[in-house]
Design brief:
alpha+beta, six-stranded mixed β-sheet, 6 strands, 31% helix
Length: 182
């Protein structure tokens, strides 16, 4: 698990202020990450292809193809990496979905990830239209936990509930270890 965690290094992770005290060694912690940002040098790393204006979206191939040699190209490696970060966040936290931003040179995309896939924005040049990125970050900073993707129907067990749970689990394990004792 620690080797896997070491490979999980998005370019930037955003955390809640109250969670910052749990990050002691300057290491990425996807168990606490609110949102991640991935940076790439150029548009070549963008795994998505926006349809041309006016083109049919039903026949358009939105995800990049394999490279000529049959291996995943830079763009497909990027989407695989981002999907693994999103999956890790959703696995380590009680989440219904999470968000990310991917920046490819002067362009960016905003992605909403959930357990069934992703919703991806059109690519936009954040130098020419910085308002799009600023507006997303501003709205995200004011969103509720539920809107940010946290499952607010789940709450942490009280100390008393935790004690009862541990007692019941211990009793169950003992009956499994000694099934013929009554």
């Amino acid at each position: 698990d620690s080797r896997r965690q070491k490979r999980m290094k998005p370019g930037l992770c955003l955390y809640k202020e109250e969670d910052m005290s749990e990050i002691t060694d300057n290491t990425t912690n996807l168990g606490l990450s609110e949102l991640f940002v991935e940076f790439r040098k150029s548009k070549d790393w963008d795994p998505f292809n926006d349809p041309p204006p006016g083109a049919s979206k039903t026949s358009h191939r939105f995800i990049s193809e394999l490279a000529n040699d049959g291996r995943p190209n830079k763009a497909l490696r990027t989407i695989g990496q981002m999907a693994s970060y999103a999956a890790e966040i959703c696995a380590r936290q009680l989440r219904t979905h999470c968000f990310s931003i991917c920046i490819y040179g002067p362009t960016a995309r905003i992605i909403r990830w959930d357990r069934s896939g992703a919703i991806v924005s059109r690519s936009f040049n954040y130098h020419e239209t910085p308002k799009l990125l600023c507006q997303f970050l501003w709205q995200y900073s004011r969103a509720s936990d539920n809107e940010r993707g946290f499952d607010t129907t789940v709450q942490k067990a009280s100390d008393e509930e935790e004690i009862v749970f541990l007692q019941k689990i211990t009793e169950h394990i003992q009956t499994q270890a000694n099934p013929h004792e009554d």
